């Protein structure tokens, strides 16, 4: 069992699919990955949250996430539109947030397009597995100290 000090502070699940969000949140909760897991339904909701939590004048009542799982295909604002706006607003300036793309159907075009965004470290197929989460923690949060 992980101690609270080893857990991430906040993981954002940005996906419009309720089943995927339920499964991913349950897995992350069972594996004690984060103190808080927040579900947002599209890129616009995520951008609004990040602008308040991580922008120039952050709201002290909101946490900036350690990790974002971002769906590619969503209504209102998809994952790529989110990433473009995230860069445009300068929210990608710090190295703190790890962004991983989630997709149910990764086309070659989408996978190539992901490479244009330096903040996106990898992509994973939906839904996350226990193995995926262990790999993510080992690769991106191995040296984490709170």
Question: What does the model show?
Answer:
- The chain has helices at residues 18-30, 43-54, 79-88, 108-114, 130-140; strands spanning 8-14, 34-40, 67-71, 98-103, 120-125.
- With 146 residues, the protein is α/β, with parallel strands linked by helices.
- It has one domain (8-141): Response regulator (Rossmann fold, 3-Layer(aba) Sandwich).
- The chain has a 5-stranded parallel sheet.
- Helix 4 (108-114) links the parallel strand 4 and strand 5 (120-125).
- The model has no long low-confidence stretch (mean pLDDT 89).
- Residues 10-141 form the Response regulatory domain.
- Keywords: Phosphoprotein.
- The modification 4-aspartylphosphate is found at residue 71.
- This is Response regulator receiver domain-containing protein.
Query: So how many helices?
Result: 5
The counted number of beta strands is: 5
**pLDDT average, as an integer?**
89
Summarize the main sheet: 5 strands, parallel
Q: Uncertain spans, ≥5 residues at pLDDT below 50?
A: none
How far apart the termini lie comes to: 17 Å
Q: Look up the CATH topology.
A: Rossmann fold
CATH superfamily: Response regulator
Content-based structural category? alpha/beta
Strand and helix order? EHEHEHEHEH
CATH top-level class: Alpha Beta
- Count of the domains: 1
Spatial shape: globular
- Rg is 14 Å
Strand order, biggest sheet?
2-1-3-4-5
Q: How much of the residues is beta strand, in percent?
A: 15-25%
**What's the architecture in CATH terms?**
3-Layer(aba) Sandwich
Relative helix content: 25-40%
């Amino acid at each position: 069992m992980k101690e609270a000090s080893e857990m991430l502070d906040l993981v954002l699940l940005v996906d419009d699919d309720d089943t995927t969000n339920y499964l991913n949140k349950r897995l992350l909760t069972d594996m004690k990955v984060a103190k808080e897991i927040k579900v947002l339904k599209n890129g616009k909701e995520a951008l609004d949250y990040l602008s308040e939590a991580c922008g120039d004048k952050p709201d002290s009542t909101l946490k900036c996430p350690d990790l974002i799982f971002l769906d590619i295909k969503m209504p209102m604002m998809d994952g790529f539109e989110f990433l473009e706006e995230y860069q445009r607003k300068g929210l990608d300036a710090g190295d703190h947030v790890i962004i991983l793309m989630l997709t149910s159907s990764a086309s070659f075009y989408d996978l190539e397009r992901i490479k244009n965004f330096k903040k996106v470290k990898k992509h994973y197929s939906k839904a996350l597995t226990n193995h995926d989460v262990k790999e993510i923690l080992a690769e991106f949060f191995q040296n984490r100290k709170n």
